[in-house]
Amino acid sequence: MSPRLPVNNAQTITDFLNLQKSQLAEDSSKDSYQFAFDDQAFLARRETLGLRFQLELLKPEILLHEQGIKHTITVFGSTRFISCDKAQDLEKQANTPETIAEAKRALLHCKYYDSAREFGSIVASYNATQSEDRNKLHIATGGGPGIMEAANRGAFEAGDKSIGFNISLPREQYPNPYLTPGLSFRFHYFAIRKMHFMLRARAIVAYPGGFGSFDELFEVLTLMQTKKVERFPIILVGKAFWLEVINFKQMLDHGVIDQADMDLIHFVETADEAWVVIRNWYQLA
Fold first, then answer.
1. First to last CA, the chain
2. Enzyme class, one word (predicted)?
């Protein structure tokens, strides 16, 4: 019996673009004569994976530089949280056990949406006092709904630049409406997207979230633990949530992390407290 090992375990760009094998063959002169950089089928081949990595890294880098974005605060958290206004509307409309339960969860978590929105506004207010780009900190998120939308919204409504690093997903995630024109980006590769989360980051502010939030949080913690990046504030909003879902004490007791690793983390409850950590770290006015 032959092993049934997969040739490739990733969703390739050809899968995502729904390109058929016949479209990749380029067996006519019309196909082969195209400029390589203008040939979507050629650029979607498995052999050009490295080029696509480079392009996804380079495009946002150039556009962010042109818009004077030097420093960011990366904010992430659940895509499922909504504002307290919307949560209250859900509660009023709920009339089945399922919708009542959904409304209760929304009311429980809506404080985080409102906090992230407030945090975006606080950062924007600080930027308004700065005349030089090198002294500004801009809100950057994954560009989608929930906490990402809230942080972008706070900055956008205050008149500041607001950045979104979106990602292609099986159930497509659309950019939230609070992103500055020209600063809404779309990635296919999580790895390159996470690089852009980190390249200009001067702090990470993480609100309660699911797999994606944990992935991004532990990526940052690992980079700092292994000294791949300079240490900067990692701020977790909602101490009770984080200590309930991650038993940091047990990790310390088992010796799999050190106290120095825990010293990277700042637990806060409010947007103001998160900003105080960043302000004190960088001695901002």
1. 70
2. hydrolase
